[in-house]
Amino acid sequence: MNDQNLMEKIVSLAKRRGFVFPGSEIYGGLAGTFDYGPLGVLLKENVERLWLTMFRDDRDDMYGVDAAILMNPKIWEASGHVAGFSDPLVECEKCKKRFRADHLEDAGKCPECGGALGEVRQFNMMFKTHAGATEDESATVYLRPETAGGIFTNFKNVVDSQHPKLPFGIAQIGKAFRNEIAPRDFIFRLRELSQMEVEYFVSPAAWEQAFEEWRKLMHLFAEALGLPQEHVHELEVPAEDRAHYSKRTIDFEFDYPFGRKELWGLAYRTDFDLAAHANASGVELAYLNEDPQVGEEKKFIPHVIEPSLGVDRTILAVLASAYREDDMGGEVRTYLALAPKIAPVKAMVSPLLKNKPELVEKAHEVRAELKKVHPAIAWDDNGNIGKRYRRQDEIGTPFCVTVDFDTLGETPELKDTVTLRHRDSGEQERLTVAEVAARIRAAIE
Ligand code: ATP
Predict the structure, then answer these.
(1) Residue having the nearest C-alpha atom to atom 23 of ligand 1
(2) Could you give the CA distance from residue 275 to residue 271 in angstroms, rounded to a whole number?
(3) What is the number of the ligand 1 atom nearest to the C-alpha of 180?
(4) Which residue among 78, 128, 133, 425 has the highest number of C-beta atoms inside a 10 angstrom radius?
(5) Probe ligand 1: pick from 313, 316, 318, max atoms within 8 Å of CB?
(6) What pLDDT sits at residue 2?
(7) First to last CA, the chain
(8) pLDDT confidence of residue 159
(9) CATH class of this structure's domain 4-70+149-319
(10) Residues of the chain with pLDDT under 50
């Protein structure tokens, strides 16, 4: 399967099975926007839950916030976004199409029509809107271009209310908006996206150790998501390509079907953000140090390590890694080899025949029992068993459970056992319902 083909198959499966739909589709769409459907929502929630567990809840030094998307515009002046959050834009003089200059192979020629390209100019990517009933400049607000802003502006609130000891961090998941010049590659480059971000505050001397810690955690997260290690690469961003405030940045790149591209970022942002916000707001954003282990200084502005992860890019990497086709009994079978932890549906229960009330009733009982392990236990009694398995394979359901006459006691020694079928191997085994519950629990924990 070539890579173009793979992308088409992923996009088609995502739409057909209710993972991801084009945004505003019945009106012809809106570039750079996609909607998550019933299964996509579950997958997204599972990815975010896994991140929250690993990056926030499993640690004693992390706090959560959920800040407003609309913020005082002074924040984006202080952070440098108003002046500098821009991409280089060029327009073709012939066909008038616009491109990101740094994404072109030939900087002088239009990739669509071959026409000459005009001057490169900087295009600010922040979406502007107006707060309140006036539409003049004084009412301009921006949709946040990254979630980090709402973390820095709540630094003092978290310190004052929680009294954390350094080092500590603040985690947030939320929407961010970027008016990308050329949104593309499905959910890879969006204009409305979700981010999972941590700002981890450290004493200046401790930044390298913290950077290393988060670097390792990001690899562990990739592993937990089921991304093959050989497709995740670190790119040490050279000084000339780093943001002006960053002393070290690693891009985590992934081998997407359309090439090796940035999946996540990890940056050492020094004290740039807190210092800039303290300076612009006039509010002191310092840490009062009482611990000799943290350092000599009494009061200082903490430095920051920032692991920044895009939710949508993560989901695309997960789908691309999980997509499989194999030959099962002479027909091509499509399945998603999703890690059970993030699979939208954990198991499907079905009665062997749907016109046998005793089988149906027993299967409902089995399903109710398994729902105690996890709520995402599906029901399917449509068509033959083979078709039901294929439907679940395609959405990545790790287990299928079938209730048959043996479950009811036709073969006495098999009474109350069911067939458990495994997604990847297609293998089946006969187990009690309690054993099936234990298998599902073990797989998702
Ligand atoms: P790129 O160079 O690809 O435009 P970036 O370096 O501007 O990305 P960051 O500002 O570091 O990206 O944003 C942090 C993370 O947010 C990225 O690693 C990515 O996962 C996600 N992200 C950024 N821009 C987009 C986008 N337009 N669509 C989807 N996810 C995005």
Answers:
(1) 310
(2) 6
(3) 27
(4) 78
(5) 313
(6) 67
(7) 33
(8) 97
(9) alpha beta
(10) none
